[in-house]
Amino acid sequence: MRNKYPQEFRDEAVRQVIEKGYSVGDVAKRLGITDKSLYNWVAKAKVSPDKNDELAEIKRLKAELKRVTEERDILKEAAAYFASESRKGTRS
User: In the chain, what percentage of residues exceed pLDDT 90?
Assistant: First the structure.
């Protein structure tokens, strides 16, 4: 069975190797993961730091789009409700 680690966990493990200078073996042993997994994560991070930034930006923008779309839908419903209430009050 394959273990699935949260992205934050992976990022921190990679950060310890790349930024703090710890060895892959030390970090892997301390975190209870395989050396191979950590080597793969580090290699992925080193190959495309710009790509990682782009993916993070895309993720942020998608979340913002979802929030704004939900807000728009709520405002559309509110506008429709108040328009119908306004028509009820102006009929003679």
Answer: 67
